[in-house]
């Protein structure tokens, strides 16, 4: 089965910390020796990654930029690295909201979270697809790899907007995979459980969550194994259990219904 081992050049957006950084380094270490383009906002962290290997390139990007600026970023990447055939979307932010105290809810943070975690990803996928469909016409596989969360399926109420954004990407990924079923463009969704990360530092919840989260090295090892196998959904630990419990057969049902051009049955 086609997997990340078949990619020649992998762009990781959100590679300056956490899962994105770990995956960028793990993909770099594959026996297939792909070029890895680490992208993010923090230049000093990009420089630190680039210093590790001549196969790690960097690109600075703010995914909350306008459509025109994102288009320029994609055009520049494709022009400089015409072999780019995989994009991992790891950028994300998470805020805690208490809707029992509506006066404390900052609507601008809701908008930022939605734009960062969903709108920007859809925008970038749209911009990369012409290049990937061109590779498809040449008989080459390519990979769209959004990172969602177990919370896309089983939400946590204090981060309700974050869960909603991840659920949106999860749903989008299922439908996009169905639309691209007869192409060589692979949609591979990564669904992490609670993993060691900087994501929670600004919330002050890291000391508590660190007692329960999966260590980043362990998580990365299992996730790379799934990416190499070519799993359509890469779920590890609790995420795998949640996916099995609540969504077993859903992806296949959506794909079959789309191919038949009949509506998906939705129970009342």
TrEMBL record:
A Pfam family hit: adh_short
Gene3D superfamilies for the chain: NAD(P)-binding Rossmann-like Domain
UniProt keyword annotations, A-Z: NADP, Oxidoreductase
UniProt key word Acyltransferase: no
Alphabetical list of InterPro entries matching this protein: NAD(P)-bd_dom_sf, Sc_DH/Rdtase_CS, SDR_fam
SUPFAM superfamilies, per database record: NAD(P)-binding Rossmann-fold domains (SSF51735)
Similarity section: Belongs to the short-chain dehydrogenases/reductases (SDR) family.
Name used for this protein in its record: NAD(P)-binding protein
